[in-house]
Every structure is written in structure tokens, then in C-alpha cells.
């Protein structure tokens, strides 16, 4: 088996059968990183020596009969805002090139407890504040589906999306405050899961907005996302929000049948931004695929407007980001990208009254969404309005990539971005399923069934021109 584009599940099976070792798999990905990442820019740091040492140790444990679980011995890329004690963690900022973690994030601790190998720190938009995926100071990763034109990778988990799509890691960890897992997943042709707020602990993950942040897996398949969700979820005394989450039943989603499921469908007149023709075709194909699976589709009479939710979500992000960075964001001598600086500074203009009223509306809309979703297992929407554009065409003053992403965070939903084929020129397309709060199981079941019908899993980016 060539590990490059294999799923976590397939690699796990190869390890259990003895046809591959963790050392072989880890070395393979390290070699691909060494060969391709200079052009792609997916990673900001890779410690090959430590990764190989961990792999060899995990192989010895397996040989002695000790296996931590299905993820034992598998590599993973981790977004550069997840703390690992004594390691550099820059949060995508040149200003923080010397910042070191003083403790382990709960996410990191759980990855290590599952036997995973953090193979490298993935590049990101500075302070996780941007959907295009650009980072003018530290560098913008290249979308691997076009090695001739530098296209956007999507953000803010830009490097995580590129690493998985390009076969530099079998999976990655991202964060999502308004689409930052789902946008790069969509533009890079992979799966991105934004769990419900509180499902995965945020302790030790540097915040953009503590009200809206979430941590999620970025993978090749829905089943792989489920594996990581099982490993990362659960209560954490350091994050009170996790105590409100009902327990997940590992693998329970696999027993759910499509017959009898009901999916609300976002109508075109409710789209906050019109789709380009190929994205529209992918959305229509997803609807047809769901019908063929026996799912009942219901045109949604949405009790909210996505544009209004996007604006309100952005207000909370800006206000809370400013609170985090206010001590240095005004200092022009600090090397912070101009567009991220502008976004953070916008938070200074959000009054206390506006912030408190928006938080109240956030709570209200969570209840409205919960009532709306009672008859449904999911809501089908686009993920992004168009495929990856050249970096040279980015308008940093606009936020079109957030139009379909931010609402899920604002209403307390879980969200799943799914590959939905390719454009005629070979760029990935995507659709999104939104679920009720803590309804990841039906979302995973629908996503896994849908990906069998609309994903083109045999297609891989051509990196030979690098």
C-alpha cells in the first residue's frame, strides 16, 4: 500500500495486519514533506527526528501487545495554535516566532494518548483571523490542485488543508470560528468537521473568539473524521463547556439508516452569495444523491438570514479578538499582517452595548435553530460560493468564504464539509451538512453515505511539476 493518500482507517488496518509499521508510514510522510513542502508551504515546523523516535517506540509497544487504539502509530498534522509544552507555537504570526507553550493543550494530550504522532505544525492565517488562507508575512500555502498558479488554500486552517490534500499527512487538526476547518477542506477537496461548541476541549488552543471557537478534524474520509472525533471529545475539567456535551457513542453513527432521514435544503433565494455555475451543479448533484439514498428532502423555510448571522458572528469575533490582542495591535512596529491588523482593530469599534446585545442574540438564535432542526437530521447548504481563486485576485476587504461558514458557529450547530467532485479545470467542489447541536452522529452517517455518491476519491493532486 502507498500510504500517501490512504485513509486513517486503511493505514490502521495495515498496521494491525503487519503489512506496514508506524516507522514505515511516518518515514514515508516525512520524505513527502521534504520533497514537496518547500513549494507547498503547508508546515511551519517539522521535527523528523522526534517523529521517527515516537514511531519506533509505538512499533515496539505494538510488538509487545500494547495498542492504544485504532489511531496508534499514525501521523497527524496539527495547526500552529495547539500548545505542546516547551514547543514553539506561533499562531501564524511572525511577531510570535519565539512564543513557546508552557503546557499541553487537551487536544494534544488526547492525540498522544491515542498513540498518534504529531508530525508537524501546520501553517495558518495569522491569529486564525481570515477565510482566504493568506498570510503575507509568514507565507500563504499553495493549494495543491494547481501547481502552475498560486491559488488560495482557504483559511484559517490553511496548512492543515493543504497537508492532507497533498498527501503530506493522512489527517490534520484545524480550528473553526466561522468556517476555518470547512473552508480549507472545501477548497482542498477533503473532509472537514466542525463539532458542536463544547464537544472538544479548547484548553490550550489559542483563542480567536472564546465564544465561537471549535477544534475539528480534517481528513480524507468521513469515517476518519469520526475516528478523530471519538479520540478528541469528552469532558475536560479545564473547559466547562465540555461538561454540557452528551457522551458520544463510538461508531454509533454507522448503524443509522438513510431511510426515514429528513434533510432540510437551503433554497437558492436564501443564498447569501450566489454560487458559480459549477458549485451550483455540485449542490444540485448532492440533492439528487440524497434522494437516491432514500432521504426525504424538505425545502427549508429558514427562520434567519445567513447574511445577518454572518455579520453578527463577525462582530463577536472582532470584539473578542481585540480583547486578546489589544496590548500590541496598535503598535505598527510589531510585524502583524495589515489585513489581520485591520480586522482585529475593527473590534475596538464594537461598543460594550453592541457586544452584549450580540451575545444575547447569539443565545436566542441557538434556541431558534434548535427549534428549526427538530424535524430534521441535517440542513444541506453550499460550503463556499466558488472554487479556489488565484491569490492575486483576493479582496481582503471581503469575506465571501465565510458566508456559508459563520452561521453554523453562531447558531451552535455542528457542520461537515464534504468533497463534491471537481470543476472542469480540476479544482475541488464541496457541499456542507449542518446538524443540530451535539447531533454529530446523524451528520456523520449522512456524510458517509453522501461521500460514496459524490466524492471522487480516486483523484489526487499532481505534484510532479514541483
UniProtKB/TrEMBL annotation:
PROSITE patterns linked to this entry: AMIDASES (PS00571)
One of the Pfam families matching this protein, by short name: Amidase
Domain Amidase: 25-444
Stretches that traverse the bilayer: none
Source domain of life: Bacteria
Physiological role: Hydrolyzes indole-3-acetamide (IAM) into indole-3-acetic acid (IAA).
PANTHER family cross-referenced by the UniProt entry: AMIDASE AMID-RELATED, TRANSAMIDASE
Protein's recorded name: Indoleacetamide hydrolase
Organism: Nitratireductor rhodophyticola
Amino acid at each position: 500500500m502507498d500510504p500517501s493518500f490512504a485513509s486513517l482507517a486503511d493505514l490502521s488496518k495495515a498496521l494491525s495486519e503487519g503489512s506496514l509499521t508506524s516507522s514505515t508510514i511516518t518515514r514515508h510522510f516525512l520524505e513527502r514533506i521534504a520533497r514537496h513542502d518547500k513549494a507547498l508551504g503547508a508546515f511551519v515546523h517539522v521535527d523528523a527526528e522526534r517523529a521517527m523516535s515516537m514511531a519506533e517506540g509505538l512499533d515496539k509497544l505494538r510488538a509487545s501487545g500494547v495498542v492504544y487504539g485504532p489511531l496508534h502509530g499514525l501521523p497527524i498534522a496539527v495547526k500552529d495554535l495547539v500548545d505542546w509544552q516547551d514547543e514553539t507555537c506561533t499562531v501564524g504570526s511572525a511577531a510570535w516566532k519565539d512564543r513557546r507553550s508552557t503546557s499541553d493543550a487537551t487536544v494534544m494530550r488526547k492525540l498522544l494518548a491515542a498513540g498518534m504522532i504529531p508530525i508537524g505544525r501546520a501553517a495558518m492565517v495569522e491569529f486564525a483571523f481570515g477565510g482566504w488562507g493568506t498570510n503575507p508575512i509568514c507565507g500563504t500555502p499553495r493549494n495543491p490542485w494547481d501547481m502552475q498558479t498560486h491559488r488560495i488554500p482557504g483559511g484559517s486552517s490553511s496548512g492543515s488543508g493543504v497537508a492532507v490534500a497533498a498527501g503530506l499527512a493522512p489527517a490534520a487538526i484545524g480550528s473553526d470560528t466561522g468556517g476555518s476547518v470547512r473552508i480549507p477542506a472545501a477548497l482542498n477537496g477533503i473532509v472537514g468537521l466542525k463539532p458542536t461548541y463544547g464537544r472538544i476541549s479548547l484548553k490550550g488552543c489559542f483563542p480567536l473568539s472564546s465564544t465561537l471557537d471549535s477544534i475539528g478534524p480534517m481528513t480524507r474520509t468521513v469515517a476518519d473524521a469520526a475516528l478523530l472525533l471519538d479520540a478528541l471529545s469528552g469532558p475536560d475539567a479545564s473547559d466547562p463547556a465540555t461538561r454540557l456535551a452528551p457522551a458520544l457513542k463510538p461508531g454509533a453513527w454507522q448503524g443509522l439508516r438513510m431511510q426515514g432521514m429528513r434533510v432540510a435544503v437551503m433554497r437558492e433565494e436564501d443564498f447569501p452569495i450566489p454560487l458559480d455555475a459549477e458549485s451550483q451543479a455540485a449542490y444540485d448533484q448532492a440533492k439528487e444523491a440524497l434522494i437516491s439514498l432514500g432521504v426525504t428532502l424538505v425545502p427549508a423555510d429558514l427562520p434567519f438570514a445567513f447574511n445577518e448571522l454572518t455579520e453578527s458572528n463577525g462582530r463577536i469575533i472582532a470584539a473578542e479578538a481585540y480583547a486578546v490582542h489589544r496590548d500590541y495591535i496598535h503598535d505598527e512596529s510589531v510585524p502583524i499582517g495589515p489585513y489581520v491588523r485591520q480586522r482585529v482593530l475593527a473590534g475596538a469599534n464594537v461598543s460594550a452595548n453592541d457586544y452584549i446585545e450580540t451575545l444575547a442574540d447569539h443565545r436566542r438564535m441557538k434556541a431558534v435553530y434548535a427549534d428549526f432542526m427538530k424535524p430534521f437530521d441535517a440542513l444541506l447548504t453550499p460550503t463556499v460560493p466558488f472554487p479556489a481563486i488565484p491569490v492575486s485576485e483576493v479582496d481582503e476587504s471581503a469575506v465571501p468564504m465565510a458566508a456559508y461558514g459563520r452561521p453554523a458557529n453562531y447558531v451552535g450547530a455542528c457542520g461537515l464539509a464534504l468533497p463534491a467532485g471537481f470543476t472542469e479545470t480540476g479544482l475541488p467542489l464541496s457541499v456542507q451538512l449542518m446538524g443540530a447541536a451535539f447531533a454529530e452522529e446523524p451528520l456523520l452517517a449522512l456524510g458517509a453515505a453522501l461521500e460514496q455518491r459524490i466524492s471522487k476519491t480516486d483523484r489526487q493532486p499532481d505534484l510532479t511539476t514541483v
